[in-house]
Amino acid sequence: MISPKAVLFALSLALLAATAPAPSADEFTRVPLRRRISLTRSDNTFDHDEAIRQNVKTANKIRRNIINIQRNTGQLPAGSIEIPSIATLPSSLLGKRQKVPLTDLEDDSEWAGNITIGTPPQTFFIDFDTGSSDLWVPSSACNDTCTGKALYAASKSSTSARKDGTFQIEYGDGSSTSGPIYTDTVTVGGIKATKQYFSAVTTESPEFVGDPADGILGLAFPAISNLGQDPFFVTAFKQKHAARDEFAFKLNTTGSELHIGGVNTALYKGSFEYHNLSSDIGYWQIGNAKALINGESAVSGFETIIDSGTTIMYGPPDAVKKVYAAVKGSKIYDADNGFYSFPCAKPPTLAFAWGGKSWDISFANLNLGETEPGSGQCVGALAGQDLGLGSDVWLLGDSFMKNVYTVFSFAIAKGAVGFAALK
Ligand SMILES: *[C@@H]1O[C@H](CO)[C@@H](O)[C@H](O)[C@H]1NC(C)=O
Ligand SMILES: *[C@@H]1O[C@H](CO)[C@@H](O)[C@H](O)[C@H]1NC(C)=O
Ligand SMILES: *[C@@H]1O[C@H](CO)[C@@H](O)[C@H](O)[C@H]1NC(C)=O
Ligand SMILES: *[C@@H]1O[C@H](CO)[C@@H](O)[C@H](O)[C@H]1NC(C)=O
Fold it and tell me: How many Å lie between the centroid of ligand 1 and the Cα of residue 295?
């Protein structure tokens, strides 16, 4: 039986909740992001080694996604003929550490912000990746490979539960990260998901040593989850914790943020141009794309994956060759890795369109730096790479996303990506 006293207490709690000043929407839904790692050195030249590292990292992320899709759905994604072999770093780069100090705020390839896991909350600094679907952080059982990171202590969280199985990821330097699987309460920008699946890894790959981010939070769909579980946002939206089933990114030198449960109207102007997802394979993938050089179509009718966890933009080698063929003075810079250069003094305007407006890539976002000091040739942030996605799928990372305000919506059709002009 419930005592009258308990009823009164519950009632006063309810009243308290009703009269307490509500946190502003922004406090609840904004995650400020900090950027890091540049492919451009401080003397404005192209950091070739770092670019090759990023290529290998991207290729192996896509490879893992393909493996996960096959395991979760029983088939390879359309366009993928086979699981690509693991991409490896050239021996000259193995063991060579990044020269760029990773705390350098001039960095520019990965945007990270805080999340909490557990009860009471444990804070982690996380990369938000729309191109993968798992959450992992370092575990308190991790030894020297996790030095300097925030560590998840399952024993200190009253809502933590250990699950069966092990999570494992291989990297291009031959290392891997792995760890046990848990569920716990995860909060991102005030939006909560309870019983969220994630891994607390007990070894970190050398790829992450010195990286200010503790781990990764994947923002794509369940089909590409290595854990075979709903990613954070899918859980949060199913549990109806967010006002609207969408999240939006602004990525820029300063003022970058992830907005959850809606869009931040202070950051864009005009209306959104929405595109329904063209594939239910698990990516934020939209079709009917066109690449333009100086307003003229160079390649059209392809698919694009919008990926905040990828630094630059990649297309199939033949298609990217066509794009640069339309650029006066362009040259192949590194055939093995698909990099081209263009005259810095006469940069092309590269744009993408999906049947609506053309979204220009600014010179600052297209230029990865001069090939050599004073060469006058700048390396372009669009590279030709066969990532195993098939012959008509491009991967548009931060070099594209920095030019637009992007919303990722589960609320429209079976999912849609919307673009608006930055204010
Ligand atoms: C993340 O949280 C830490 C404290 O746990 C704080 O010092 C830091 O400024 C936060 N970073 C961002 C980008 O919000
Ligand atoms: C970490 O070190 C402790 C003590 O040396 C050892 O018992 C444990 O197995 C190690 N854990 C891992 C994941 O290597
Ligand atoms: C992006 O950052 C640069 C450098 O801080 C700034 O000049 C520019 O106004 C910013 N753009 C937007 C849309 O915030
Ligand atoms: C997007 O999907 C919605 C719902 O399925 C549909 O009504 C709309 O026509 C689609 N838009 C386009 C451009 O295909």
Answer: 42
Mean pLDDT, residues 40-58: 90
State whether residue 109 is helix, strand or coil: coil
Q: Is 307 a catalytic residue?
A: yes
> 260-282: b or e for each residue (b if 16 or more CB lie within 10 Å)?
bbbbbeebbeeebbbbebbbebb
Ligand 1 probe mutation, 125, 149, 152, 259, most atoms within 8 A of CB: 125
Q: Give which of 285, 162, 135, 113 is closest to 225, Cα–Cα.
A: 135
pLDDT at 279: 85
Q: What is the pLDDT of residues 243-289, one digit of tens each?
A: 789 999 998 877 788 988 889 999 999 999 999 999 888 899 999 99
196-207 exposure pattern, b = at least 16 Cβ within 10 A, e = fewer: bbbbbbbbbbeb
Q: pLDDT per residue over 129-173, tens digit each?
A: 999 999 999 999 997 778 888 999 999 999 999 999 999 887 766
Our mutation pick for probing the ligand 2 site, out of 142, 143, 147, 166, counting the most ligand atoms within 8 A of Cβ, is: 143
What is the phi/psi pair of residue 339, to 5°? Answer: -95, 140
Distance 171 CA to ligand 1 centre (A): 28
pTM beyond 0.70? yes
> What CA–CA distances, in Å, run from 242 to 146, 217, 269, 415, 417?
33, 17, 23, 16, 18
Q: Evaluate whether 359 touches 351 at the Cβ level (below 8 Å).
A: yes
In this structure, are residues 403 and 312 in contact, taking their beta carbons and an 8 Å threshold? no
**pLDDT value, residue 34:** 65
Q: Which of 54, 121, 14 is nearest to 312 (CA)?
A: 54
User: Between 283 and 86, where is the model more confident?
Assistant: 283
Three-class SS state of 65: helix
- DSSP label of 245: S
- Cα 16 to middle of ligand 4, angstroms: 44
* Mean pLDDT over each residue of the chain, to the nearest integer: 86
49 is catalytic: no
Per-residue model confidence (pLDDT) at position 101: 30
Question: Can you tell me which atom of ligand 1 is nearest the CA of 113?
Answer: 13
| Closest ligand 2 atom, residue 202 Cα | 13
Q: Smallest Cα–Cα separation from 333: which of 290, 368, 374, 362? A: 368
Instruction: Say if CB 284 and CB 306 are below 8 A apart.
Output: yes
Q: What are phi and psi of 282, to 5 degrees?
A: 125, -5
